[in-house]
Amino acid sequence: MRPADMPRRSIAASCCFDAQRNMRSETLTEFWQYRELLYFFAWRDIKVRYRQAAFGAAWAVIQPLLNMIIFTLLFGRVAHFQSGNIPYPIFVYCALLPWTYISGVLGVASMSLVNNDPLLTKVYFPRALLPAGSVLAGLLDFVIGSFLLVGLMFYYHVQAGWSLLLSPLVILLMVLLTMGVSMVTAALNVRYRDVRYALPFLIQVGLYATPIVYPATMIPKRFQPILALNPCWGIVDGLRACLFPGQPFNFKLMGTSVAVAILVFVLGAFYFHRAEKSFADVI
Amino acid sequence: MSSLIDVENLSKQYRIGHAKSTTLRESLVNAITFAHVRHKAQDEMIWALRDVSFSIDRGETVGIIGRNGAGKSTLLKILSKITYPTSGAVKVGGRVAAMLEVGTGFHQELTGMENIYLNGSILGMTKKEVDRKLDAIIEFSGVEKFIDTPIKRYSSGMRLRLGFAVAAHLDAEILVVDEVLAVGDAAFQKKCLATMENLRARARTVLFVSHNLAAVENLCGRCIWIDGGQVRMDGETHGVIRTYMNSMTSSTAAYADLEGLENRRGNGKVQFRSVEFLSPEGTAQRVIRAGDPVVMRFHYAASEPVPHPSLGFRMYTDMGTLVTETSTWHHGIHIPLLEVGEGYLDLEIDCLNLMPAKYALSLWATDDSGAVVYDNVECGVTLEVESANIYQSGKNLDSRNGLVFFPQKWNLAGTLPAARESARHAEPV
Predict the structure, then answer these.
(1) Which of A224, A235, B40, B261 has the most crowded Cβ, counting Cβ within 10 A?
(2) Would residue A233 count as lying in a domain?
(3) Are the beta carbons of A14 and B121 separated by less than 8 Å?
(4) Rounded to an integer, what distance in angstroms lies between the CA atom of residue A101 and that of residue A89?
(5) Nearest-5° Cα angle at A17, A13 to A18
(6) Which of A13, A16, A18 sits opposite B95 (nearest CB)?
(7) For chain B, which domains are there?
C-alpha cells in the first residue's frame, strides 16, 4: 500500500498542541479511548497489593475489623458513647468501611504519580488514570469489607429497609470525593514531596473530625455547620441512614456534602489538568 | 496534502539549578516574601530546543542525530506529548507510539504474560489487539518457557526482549524510537533492526534517534541533525551524517605535525615534517571512515641531496600489534634523488579496509639498503578510523570484529535445497 493511500485510522487520535498548553483534542474522548488502561492500572494495583502476603486479600477484612474491635472496646465499652438503637460495633464498622476506603485510597493515590515516574517520563497517557486506577482498585477492598458488614447485620439482627437501595449513591459520592482529593494530593506530591508526610496527619485529623467513632449528636450545635463542610460526615451519615431503620436522611447535610464533593472534584480536576503538563519535567 | 507532522518554531526551556529542591515550605515562604519574584531572574534557564521547525510526510523514516544533550530526546518527548513546549506548535495527524524505553511500566511482581497486557495497554494497545498478537509477541520475545513466571525472576536480557517484543507489535501511524537499539546483545540488536526495517516496509512513519550512525544510515532516507537545540542540518541521510562526523572530530585528524618532535632517531638528512589525510580529490579529510578512499600525504624536508632513499611506515593497533608495513622499497619503487628542500609523497589507498579503531603510524626513511636511517618517528601519527556502514547492512562494526575487512560477498546458492541435492549426488559413493 502506498503511504498516501493509508486511511486515517482515527481522527480523534490526531492532536495539536502549542505553548499555550492547550490540548485541543477532546480530553474526555481521550479518557474514553484509554478506558482499558484505567482498568489495567486498577488490575495491577489489586494483583500486586497482597502478593507475598500470607493472609492475602483477607487483609481487606482484617483491617476494618481490628479497628472496629479497638474502637468498640475503647469508645463503646470504656467511654460509653451512645449509638442510639444500633449496636456500637456495627455503628462504628459501618462508618469505618467508607473511612478505610477514603484514607487507604488517598495514601495509595497520592503516591501513584511519584511511584510511576518512569511512566510519566517515557509514555504518554492521560495522567489522571493513575490516581483513578487506585480509586477504582480500592473499591474491591470496599466490597470485601461490605460482606463482613452484611454478616454483622445478621448477627446483630439489624434489618435494612428500602433505603438500602440508595447506598450506591452514597458510595458514588464517596468515590467522587476521593478522586477529587486524590487528584490534588497526587499532583501536589509531584512537586512537593511534603505531601507524603502531611497526609497521614491529615487523615488522622479527618478520623476524629468525622462522626465515625462518636455519634453526630455529640457535636455541639454551633460547630455543626463548620463540620458539615467535611463531606465525609455526609458520606458516613448517609450510609448509616441507608442501612439502619429509624435513622432519617439529613438532607441538608447530604446536600452540603454533595456540593462540597463536586466542588473538590472540579477544582481537583482543574488543578490536575494545569499541573500535568509539567509532570515529566518536575518529577 | 499537508504533512503528517508539522513542527513550527518549537522551543523548550528548562530551569536548571534548584528546580528540584523546592519544598512546600520554601514555596510558601517565597509566596509570602515575594522572593520568587526577586529570584526568578537569577534562575539559570537553558534552551533544550530553540526555534525548531520541520515537517515530516507520511511514510518517511527520519533519523535524528546529534551529540548528547543536543535536544534530541526533548524533541521526541514533545512529539509524544510527554512534555510540553515553552513556545511553538506541533501538529500531529495520527496516533503516536513512543518507544523511549523498552518495558516501560513493567511490574516486578507480575508474570511475563501479565506484563505483556499491562505494557501493551500502557503503550496504547487495546486488550483485543494484545489478545490477537499475543502468540506472536511471546514467540518474538523468546521467553515462552517463563511466560508465567514473575518477571522479577527474569534476567535483564529477558526483560529487555519481552519489552521489545511488545513494542515491536505496536501498530501506530507514527513511531518514535529512542536509542532502544543501544542495549542488548548482538542477536537482540539484529532483531530490533529487522523490526525497524519491517516497520519501514509497512510504510509507517518512523522517527529514529540513535547514536548508531550505521543503523541510521541504513534505515533512514532522511536525517535531521540537532545541535545545541537547533536544527543544524536536515536532508538526505548520507550527506548529513558526513557533515556531522566532520564536525565531531577535531581537526588534528586531518593533519599530524611532526616538526619539533623529540622522539625520533636518524641522522636527519631527510625528516618527516607532517602527514596529511586527503580525499582523492585532494581536500583535507577530517574524518576517515572504514572503507573510504584516502590519500596519505607525507611531507618531508631534505637538508642535503639524498640519493636512493626509501620511505615507508608501519601501522600498529593501540595494543601494539603490527597491522601492516609498506614503503617505496616494498613496492620496488626507485627514487633516484631527493633534492634539498621540501616535498611530499602520496600514498593512494582505494579502500581503507580497516575496522573502526585508532591506529598508530611509525614513519621511517632510510637509504636503499636500510643500513643508514635518516629518520624514524615511532608512533608519531594517529589514524582514527570511524565506523561506517561497511557491508551496507546497518550493522555497526568495530575493533571487536577484528582489524580488517575484505571486499566480500556471501553466496547463498549452496543453502538452497536443489543445490544440496545435486551436491549429494555428486559425492562419490
Answers:
(1) A235
(2) yes
(3) no
(4) 18
(5) 170
(6) A13
(7) 59-81+95-248 (3.40.50.300), 251-388 (2.70.50.60)
